[in-house]
Amino acid sequence: MTASPPPDSDAATPSPSISWTDPGRAEAFAQWLATIGPQHHLLPATARAASADASFRRYFRIDSDDAAGTRIIMDAPPAKEDSKPFVHVARLMHEAGLTVPQVLEWDEASGFLLLDDLGRQTMLEVIDPADPVAARPLYDQAVDALIRWQLASRPAVLPAYDRALLERELALFPDWYVEKHRGLPVEGQLAERLQRSFRLIVENNLAAASVYVHRDFMPRNLMITGGPSLGVLDFQDAVYGPITYDIASLMRDAFLSWEEDTVIDVTVRYWEKARKAGLPVDEDFGAFYRSVEWMGLQRHLKVAGIFARLTLRDGKPRYLADTPRFIAYIRATAGRYRELTPLLRAIDEIEGTQPVSGFAYGRV
Fold this sequence. Notes:
This protein has about 375 residues and is α+β, with helices and mostly antiparallel strands. About 45% of the residues lie in helices and about 10% in strands. A hairpin with a 4-residue loop joins β4 (about 105) and β5.
C-alpha cells in the first residue's frame, strides 16, 4: 500500500539517532512517519538503527504505544533498491504458511516500508557451534519452514534460476575474487580450468527439479520468534530453481561451519521429510547429497565473488573475512569428485596453497 500525501506538520522531525547523507531523504522519511504514525501508534522520536545488510537497504526499529510494542522500517532507496520483489515474496511466503514480516505500509515512490517486528535474535545468535545436538531442534524448524515454502511452488511466479543466471553468478568469482581481490589475470590454463569446471557445475545444477528458492536460507536470516516457527527474512531475491539450493545454503553457511556428520544428519532429515511430502528429490540419498554438494559449489563461488565486491566496490570489508570458509567448502567438494580436479588445481593456484583432503566419502 502507498501512503497518502503527508500533511504539513512540525512533528515530522527525524530521530536524531538515525544518520542521513541525503537531507531530502531525511525529510521525506520524517514526513512519511508523520503521515502513517498516528494510524499505527508510532513514536517517531524512538526510531533507531536496527540492522543493515549487504545491499543498500537499511532497517530501523521504532516503538509504538500499542500492544505490538515495536515495528520495523525498511529504508530502500528506489534508485538503488526495488521493493516490489520483497512485497511480492512476503505475500507468497505468508500464503505458504511461513512466518514473515507483514507489510503494514508501503510508500513505493519513496521506498519506505513499515513491517511488523519478528524479534531481535537470529538463529545464528543462539546457536552454539560446539553443540550440534542442541542446535538440531532449530534446524528441524528451519527444515519444516523450507518444506512449506517448496510445497507452495508454482512455475512462472518467480524469476527463473536458469542457465543465464547461474553463469552470471559464477562469473563473479573470476571477475571479483580472482582478478580484483587476488590480483591474478584469469587467462591461459587458469581460465580454461575455471571455464571447464563452471560448465560441469551449471549442467549438474540444471538437472535438479525446480521449486521456490529463498536463495539465502541460512541461520543469519532466520529469527527466533518465541513460537514453534522460525521467522524468515531477506527473501527478496527468491527465484524458481534447483531444489538443492536452499538446503545447501542452510548447511554450508556463510558465517557458521559444521562437521560433515552434522551436515549429513540435517540433510537426511530434510530429504526424508521432502520425500514424505512429495517434493521432487532423488529417491537415493547418495545421489541427492551429491547434487546438494554441486549446488553448494555454485553458491560458494558466487559468494566469494560477492564478498570481494562488497569490500572493493561497496566499502564493506567485514564480509571478506568469511571468504576462507568458502574456499574451504570449495576445496572439500572439488577434492571429492575427480571431474572437479581442474577446479581444485585452479583454487591451488589462486590461493597459493595445497588442497586439503575431503572429509567424507573420498574421491568418487
